[in-house]
């Protein structure tokens, strides 16, 4: 139970989805056994649909871990896709390199090592380059990631964030764990910002740990 949905709804939706196969299944098992957090099946399925429906070919991802979501998104994007993915944990990067190679995507996927808030500043040449940005990393930094990456997304592109409802804490005060209060406050501020900015149209979907989908309607400048 993650306090996002009734457990019976979550279980019902999950059992409808076909089981993964091949490398995705292997990575799901590895993640389960080694306690690596990866996107849930429902979120994976949503990403697949969004990528196919929008004919997305170029993606910027923050939070690679073992490369599960990166490979899943690449499979959905198909022929000629390009993903740039940022990860700060060297151990994870080594695993991701191995997994991406096993998937046969080493020419399509570039891993950039470092803290995304630093790495994004050095991506100056990639203005308007991406059809989609997918964020699945430090939740307290989502606003920084938005500010540093929005100009790299095409107008009409999607800016997607995972874990935005953070085990229900973002929506309900009584669920908040004391030591998570700063992250919760930052997520609330972030969600309010992307829900009300004139350059964006946002929907928040209560699947997985909560996912936000923001359409970039026009360019925007942010005050730092
Ligand atoms: C939830 S995991 C990503 C899972 C992956 N997207 C998947 O579903 O397969 C989050 C990852 O983000 C990385 N991370 C957290 N904060 C980061 C930051 N500021 N810059 C770069 N990577 C970060 C962590 O090291 C971790 O591996």
Q: Strand-and-helix sequence, N→C? A: HHHEHEHEHEHEHEE
**Major β-sheet annotation:** 7 strands, mixed
Radius of gyration: 17 Å
What is the count of structural domains? 1
Quote the beta fraction: 15-25%
Structural class: alpha/beta
Named at the architecture level, the CATH assignment is 3-Layer(aba) Sandwich
The first-level CATH class is given as: Alpha Beta
Q: Which blocks of ≥5 consecutive residues have pLDDT under 50?
A: none
The strand line-up of the biggest sheet is 3-2-1-4-5-7-6
Describe this structure as you would to a colleague.
It is a single chain. The chain has eight helices and seven strands. It has one domain: Rossmann fold (3-Layer(aba) Sandwich). It has a seven-stranded mixed beta sheet, with helices on both faces. The longest helix is centred in the last third of the chain and has 16 residues, at 181-196. By secondary structure, the chain is of the alpha/beta class. It is globular, with a radius of gyration of 17 Å. The chain binds S-adenosylmethionine (SAM).
